[in-house]
Every structure is written in structure tokens, then in C-alpha cells.
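Standup notes, structure subgroup. Blocker cleared on the zinc ion input:
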Amino acid sequence: MFRYCALLCLLLTSGVTAAEPDQLRLATFAADITIPLGHRCMGVLPIKAQRIEDPLEARGLVLLGSGKPVVIVALDWCEVRNGAYDQWRDQLATAAKTDRNRVMVCSLHQHDAPVTDSGAQALLDSVGMQGELYDVAFHADCIARVSDAVRTAIASAQPLTHVAASEAKVAQIASNRRVEYPDGRVGYNRGSRMDPKSAEAESDAGEIDPFLKSIHFYNGDRELATLTSYATHPMSYYGRGGVTADFVGMARRRRQLDTEGSMQIYLTGCSGDVTAGKYNDGAPATRGILADRLYRAMVEAAAAAKRQSITEYDFRCGELQLPFHEGEEFTEEAMTAVLQDDTASEKARILAAMGLSSLERLETQPIDLPCLDLGIAQIVLLPGEAFVGYQLMAQRLRPDSFVMAVGFGESWTGYIPTKRAFDEGFGHSWRWVGRGSEAVIREQLTRVLAE
Ligand SMILES: [Zn+2]
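Run returned:
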């Protein structure tokens, strides 16, 4: 208490306007959101949660004092979709006394973690598949706990006086799914783990963003929080029943031990087509190796951070009206038939329910494209599994600035290929958007990133 008073006196006498009502403030929060045993992972995996390898967390911050508050929350979950996405945003908006679209909810996309979609689960309930996508009561409880954490955090928000933006190159994690074979063929065949002797492992890394980006928030010279982002799928191995925040969670926790008092928040970049496949054999020990590489970049980026004063932030939000998947199996009739067919596989019926939920959503509500502008840096949240090409596009749209593009916001889209990937025949059942997505995203990105 004495130290706090001394600090406050110092701030007041040094001319920092702590007493002014529009002083910027920052609140940080965290809460446990680990799924119960027996819960479905990744929406459709056949092996459900059998043991907790390490907890799943929600970690975030609230910016206050320049217009309405802006909330950023990162979940150690696979995806949050449609009505479930609005449940998170609405309740956190109420807790922070702000608007829904100023709550930037993103998942880190670990695969031994849940996918939630309230519309899809309601459809599954109607055909006797209660709880098969996710546990609705557990989900509501997580939102309530995180909302409480937001309220508590705001009550003890700290003055925000400086920010810094920096980056560091990451060694040997990211590689693109797209592989150019020696005979000239192109295929999107690099998964998240590969045999080191395979052509997919030996081929070049392809299009990636090699830089880990970090944005640091300070009260004077004391760091309050760091947002760190890197574009890669976050899993080393999955589908064996071990719930985990995986190597990105390991790196974040190790970095947290170095930075007591500063909330470490990791965000997954736009990485629908980026995995660790070139460098990951899927062996359990490799998880720690990947975590170590990411951690080293976090340390290097933090060491390069240079504080600059901040007196305001700005917020802009675009709207994405994306086209739906063009395939005949993605019509309302076809998906309804699969959902109601009790001889169809569980996976097929869950995918159909998610498709129907998304189709209804697409017809009634565009996807928000929120952008938080800190002056020296912009943070833009893209939907779902946007390919890394969109992250690089966002950076090219503001060559004068520092753009942190984050993926896995509203995630009903599944994969969002670039035009090139569509042209090259990228095909996957985890895709609900159609051709033409790139033009829509480019237009809205241009708008929200403009000064
Ligand atoms: Zn994915």
C-alpha cells in the first residue's frame, strides 16, 4: 500500500495526469476454462477428454479511458462460433460496460480443447445428441466466471501511460500446408506433424510470417501486460484424450514466470494454412522443443521493446459478408438430411449441425472485423482459420505501422483460403465459406486499418 501511494505521488508530481477522468487505464484478468473429463475436443474428435495434461485458461485485458472500453480475451479453446460467440461478447460487454463489437474474443485453436456453437448444439439436441458438441452448462459457467474476472479487474485497473511494439524472428516452427513437389505439383498436404523423411517435411517452409509480434503495456516503467502473437497452428500432437494448452501455452507460462506482475497473453495469428509440420514429428518430447523456440522469441521481442507514451486509443469495426461454401453438400436440404440421418456418423452429423447454424447466421448477421488502434500499432481480429496471406495483406496495407493480425475470432467460417488457394483447389470439410472471400476481406481490412 505504501509503495502504491509513493508511486501515485511520484506520478502526480512528475506531471502524469493520474487524477484526470480520461486518464487511460488497463485492467488484466485470467480465469480457468478447462473442460470436464468426457467433453468433446475439436468439435468432432472421436476420443473425448480423458485426462487434463495442463489447464485451459482465458486471459485478457480491458483498455479504458478513450471512448468506450475495449476488451481482448484469448481462450485456450479450439473455436467459438455463432450464438456462442455472441454469448461471450455480450456478457463480457456487460461486465466491461461497453459494446459487443468492442469485445475481441479469440481462441488459440488448440485441438485437445472444445469447439462451441449454440445453434449447432441446439440442432443436435433436437436429434437426441445432447452435449455431443459441447456442454452448454459448463460453457455458461465459463462465461460467467470470466465476466466476474473482468468486473474484478476493472475495479483495480492501473494507469496506462506507455506502450511498445516489437518483434523477433521465430526459428523452426511455422511452415505452410502448401507444398511444391519436385515434379511441379502443388498440394496442401502438410499437416501439423509429419514424418521427417517425407517430401512434406523436406520441402521449403513456404509462405509464413516468420515474426512473433509483441505489444507491451506499461504504467510508467512497470509493465502491466504483454500481447504476443505468432501465426501457426498451436498443436504438436492431439486426439489422444489429453486436454492441453499445448506448446503455445507452455511458452506463455514459462514467460509468465519471468514477468511477475505483467499479464502474458498469447494470441494465435492468421494461420489456417500454417502448422509446425515441417519441424514436428509429433513425438511427445517435441512439444517442449517447439515451446522453447516460441519462448526464446518472446524473450527476444520483449528485450527489443521501446516504450512510447500513449494518451488515447481508437477503435474501428468493419463487417464481413462472406459467401457460403458453394458445394451441393452445403445446401440447407443436404445438411438437414445428414443431421437427421441416424445412420450417418457422429462426425458427419455434428459438421452438418455446425453448417446449418452458420448458414442461418450468414443470412442474418455479418461477421465483425474489429480493429484496436493504439497509434503505434493496430490489432485487427480476423475470423476463423484465415490463411496467413490475410495477415501479410494486413501488414502490407499499413507499411508505415506495426500491424498485429490475430486469427480465430468468430470461427464459423472454418478455413478461409486466399484466392490462390481456392484456385489451386484447396479442399477440406472444415470450410464453410466460399470463393470470393478474399475480395470481401481485402476491402474491409483496408477500411479498418486506415488511419
Ligand atoms: Zn485448424
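Discussed briefly. The longest helix spans residues 136-155.
Next: hand off to the docking folks.
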